[in-house]
Amino acid sequence: MSKTFSSETFGQTLPSNKKLLAWVKEVVELTTPDQIFWCDGSEEEKEFLTKQAVDQKILIKLDQKKWPGCYYHHSNPNDVARVEQSTFICCERKEDAGPTNNWAAPKEMYDKLHGMLRGAMKGRTMYVIPYLMGPAGSPMTKVGVELTDSIYVVLNMRIMTRMGKVALKHLGENSDFNRGIHSVLDCDPARRFICHFPQDNAIISVGSGYGGNVLLGKKCLALRIGSALGRNEGWLAEHMLLLCLEDPEGKKTYVAAAFPSACGKTNFAMMIPPESFKGWKVTTVGDDIAWMKPGADGRLYAINPEAGYFGVVPGTNNKSNFNAMRSMECDTIFTNVARTPDGDVWWEGKDNSPPKDLIDWKGNSWNPESGEKAAHPNSRFTAPMKNNPDVAEEAEWPEGVPISAIVFGGRRANTMPLVFQAFNWIHGVYIGATVGSEMTAAAAGTLGQVRRDPMAMLPFCGYNMGKYFDHWLEMRRMIKVLPRIFHVNWFRKDSYGNFLWPGFGENMRVLQWIAERCQGRANGLETAIGWMPRYEDMNMNGIPGGMTPERFEALQKIDFEEWRRELILQDELFIKLYRDLPKELMCQRELLISRL
Length: 596
Ligand code: OXD
Ligand code: MN
Known about the structure:
By secondary structure, the chain is an alpha/beta fold. It folds into 3 domains: about 5-55 and about 85-235, Phosphoenolpyruvate Carboxykinase, domain 1 (3-Layer(aba) Sandwich), CATH 3.40.449; about 240-305 and about 390-595, Phosphoenolpyruvate Carboxykinase, domain 3 (Alpha-Beta Complex); about 310-385, Beta Complex (Phosphoenolpyruvate Carboxykinase, domain 2), CATH 2.170.8. The protein has 17 helices and 32 strands. The strands form 7 sheets. Strands 1, 2, 5, 6, 7, 8, 9, 10, 11 and 12 form a 10-stranded mixed beta sheet that branches. Strands 13, 14, 15, 16, 17, 18, 26, 27 and 30 form a 9-stranded mixed beta sheet that branches. It starts with a strand and ends with a helix. About 50% of the residues are buried. Manganese (II) ion binds near residues 239, 261 and 288.
């Protein structure tokens, strides 16, 4: 093996885990790095690597008075987002990946990727990152090891996961860990592949440096591989935020919510209740991913496997998300926002006064007349979860939190009311399976078009989506106290195109109804699509701009013509998945049609 200079620098001894050592050796022989760096997760190591990253111009040090511990990174302009077209599930049978995933045969894909990785780290350092997804000591926690040639990945992984010695200790001599290999190669989109091998608990990612493609603990392990592991092991890996709602008497309700990307999961998870909600508090357990497993008492327990936030920056300000602004005040890595030569950062939606001499995310000088965005719309902050002033203490609980409510939602200008509740678990699974959301600005020409994104997992389900629905249905036999299931839509508009609901902190009103429904305290009306609050069932005190019963009726309206169209649109997904679609869901569809 080549030189292992972290042990010289930090006195770290190599782990004794033979399986881990043998696998690292194999990858070293394949990729031939000049050096191997075993990460221990210490503060000294962070300082050392940060200095190296600055010396190598991978990171730019921000003004440390304004932004203590914060750094800036420009990515390659061709590499700014997840790439669904280059993301593969590699299992033996194509039908196991299902019609919503790209598939490749494992052997062929391994051959191709190993060919690309041969000698790929020559002249570079290979970092060995042992990490945990989940709190140390939790029975739900999984160990991963990522081998990467990117120092940016190391510094992000140490924020997003519990990394280093703690992970090696958790692993011990066990051979059960996720094997992840990442190399940026030459960052060519034509040679970019994000590949998952669920049967081997392995991931190989090449050709990209962008977070969602390369921080292998997040979308790759915690969702794609995680969902496949969860199916075999009897749990759920979901694209969900987790929050704790505490009422004035101190009673806590834990809520999990799945919204497609860019529908405000981080904002909802970090919500601050309005002034009129004295004594109510929302704390954040997680903002993106939940692992949920039935506990011994028959309830469904959830952990947030992550330790940090990798959030979209544009649009974030003290009003839209006060806690996200606090979270990124120190020890944060900013990627692809705009910056100034003296180490400040700025983005669209931060405030109305971009600083002078702004440098845009591509590194060019920028002014308001440039006609382009200064910050990339998918620019990100990577911040430790502990920076959030309202992080829940429960985020560190190894046993997780008992979930009372599961909420699905999307961005819909019409059809979907503000809130309704499923009649039961199977109906709730149908509601989750048929989630649709309007595409946002990124895809030109399709603006406003509704894309089906079942349970917000379309890009993240690591196996056949039909079988995934089946797994959700089967879970009801393992959970004695089933969470109640709801659907929300903050984005319904009137005929003039104005939002009918103020959103943000005011969503607290919906959350209160949801929590009280779970406790059997709030009323609701049985309708064709589910249980719905009437005007008098919701707390509208102090709502900005007021809320008349007429306006609320428009928000909650079930328009039969719109629902007819909705059912036809749902068919697109059902036809695609027909072969493996559980018949319970077809049955729910028929029941809904007959009720309507
Ligand atoms: C994310 C996403 O980055 O969902 O969390 O795309
Ligand atoms: Mn996400």
